[in-house]
Amino acid sequence: MQYEVVLPAAGSGKRMGAGQNKLFLQLNEKPILIHTLEVFQSDEDCTGIWLAVKPEEREYIQGLLERYHITKVKGLPNGGQERQHSVQSCMKAMQQVEIVLVHDAARPFITKPIISRLVGAAQEKGAAIAGVRAKDTMKKVRDGVIVETVDRESLWMIQTPQAFRFKLLQQAENHAEEQGFLGTDEAMLVERLGHQVHIVESTYENVKMTTKEDLIFGEAILRQRNN
Ligand code: C5P
C-alpha cells in the first residue's frame, strides 16, 4: 500500500542544546536527518517525502539531499512556529493522496515493518499511531506533590509515525485551526473530531533524538544494528 510522508524538520532543538538544528548532528558520521530520510527513500511503498524546513536552512538541506542521493523529496515548504504548523504547511503543499504518514525527522530508527502495519491500519480504520507501553510507574504531580497514581495498564507512550487517511487529517487540521487548538501530535486533532485512533505497538528503539543522552542511545542502536 502506497503512502506519502510528512517530516517536520523545522524545530530549533533547544532541549538538545547544540546551538544548531539537532537534525544536522551526526550519528555514525551521518546527519540524523539523513538516517530518517533513508528509511523512506528505501521503502518502495513511499511515493513522496515532504519536508518542513526553516527558510534559512533550506539551501543547506537541499545540499544534503543531493549529497546523500535522497530523490523522493517532492517539496520543502516553510515550517511554522509550532510542530503542528510545520505539518500543516506540508499538508497544504501536497496533492491529495490516500494515506499520509507524519513522522518526526528526529526519529531515525523507525523500521519498515512498523511503517507497513501503520499504513495498513490507517487504510482500514482511518487513523493509526505508533506507541509503546509505559514502563515506569506513572503519577500525576501538581506543585511537587503526587495527586494520583495512574493505572499503568492503560498508559502508552506515543511516538510517530502517525498514519491517516489524507482527508481525515486534513479535516482534523482545519477543525483545529478554526478553533485555535494546538496539539502535541496529529492524533489529538483527529480525536477531537470524535474519530477513533488505533495504536500499533512499536519498539523502544524508535526514540526521538531530544536531549544529549539520546545521542548515546542512538550510537548504541546503530552499533548493535551494524553487528
Ligand atoms: O522538538 P521536538 O523534538 O519534539 O520536535 C519533533 C519534530 O518536529 C522534529 O523533527 C522537529 O524538527 C520538528 N519541528 C518542526 N517545527 C517546529 C517544531 C518542531 O518541524 N516548529
Automatic annotation (TrEMBL):
Presence of the UniProt keyword Transferase in the record: yes
EC numbers, comma separated: 2.7.7.60
Functional pathway: Isoprenoid biosynthesis; isopentenyl diphosphate biosynthesis via DXP pathway; isopentenyl diphosphate from 1-deoxy-D-xylulose 5-phosphate: step 2/6
Site note Transition state stabilizer, residues: R15, K22
Keyword Nucleotidyltransferase included in the entry's annotation: yes
GO MF: 2-C-methyl-D-erythritol 4-phosphate cytidylyltransferase activity
Keyword annotations: Isoprene biosynthesis, Nucleotidyltransferase, Transferase
Record-annotated site: Positions MEP for the nucleophilic attack: R152, K208
Transmembrane spans: none
Classification via InterPro entries: IspD (IPR001228), IspD/TarI (IPR034683), IspD/TarI_cytidylyltransf_bact (IPR050088), ISPD_synthase_CS (IPR018294), Nucleotide-diphossugar_trans (IPR029044)
Sections of the chain in a coiled coil: none
Xref: CDD domains: CDP-ME_synthetase (cd02516)
Its biological purpose: Catalyzes the formation of 4-diphosphocytidyl-2-C-methyl-D-erythritol from CTP and 2-C-methyl-D-erythritol 4-phosphate (MEP).
Protein family (similarity comment): Belongs to the IspD/TarI cytidylyltransferase family. IspD subfamily.
Family matches, as PANTHER family: 2-C-METHYL-D-ERYTHRITOL 4-PHOSPHATE CYTIDYLYLTRANSFERASE, CHLOROPLASTIC
Record protein name field: 2-C-methyl-D-erythritol 4-phosphate cytidylyltransferase
Species this chain originates from: Ureibacillus aquaedulcis
Gene: ispD
